[in-house]
Amino acid sequence: MALGALMMVIGIGCVVFAIAVKITTIVFAVGAVLFASMQMQQTYSGNSITIKRLRRTMVFGDICFILAAMLMIETNYRIVFPFVATTMEGYNNWVHIVYNNWVVLMLIGAMLEMYTTHRISYELKKEEDNKKEESE
């Protein structure tokens, strides 16, 4: 998971500063898949509805990262572009829907991840404290 996060940071940083954009796009995409898949494999076996809800929100953030990677690949490699942009309307739609909109999904995913990470750690600590009080 840490390797995936590091690859995502390197990929985003290099794409934003226009350093080897084609290569670092793939680095980001691989990192996003690694990070998201490892985080989706984590489980919570407790009974807290709050933590279960936060886990679902975290998975949504992971999906945002993967979709951001797909849009970044399309923006930089233009795989679908020749098939869609055959008319002016198709070109406009591609620009409005795809072109550089990976940034929006990346920000949504990052905000959700930060929020859920802090809230889950707080809820787990609260749950642990409650167990200690019950045992005493």
> Alpha-carbon distance between the termini?
37 Å
Largest sheet: none
Proportion of residues in β-strands = under 5%
How much helix, percentage-wise, in residues? over 70%
How many helices? The count is 6
- How many β-strand runs? 0
Structure, briefly:
The protein has about 140 residues and is mainly α.
Topology:
Layout (H helix, E strand, L loop, with lengths): L1 H15 L4 H21 L7 H29 L3 H4 L3 H10 L4 H34 L1
Helix pairs in contact: 1-2, 2-3, 3-6
Walk me through what this model shows.
α3 packs antiparallel against α6. The protein has one domain. It is built from 6 helices and no strands. It has helices at residues 2-16, 21-41, 49-77, 81-84, 88-97, 102-135. Helices cover 83% and strands 0% of the residues. The radius of gyration is 19 Å and the shape is elongated. By secondary structure, it is an all-alpha fold.
Feature tags:
mainly alpha, about 140 residues
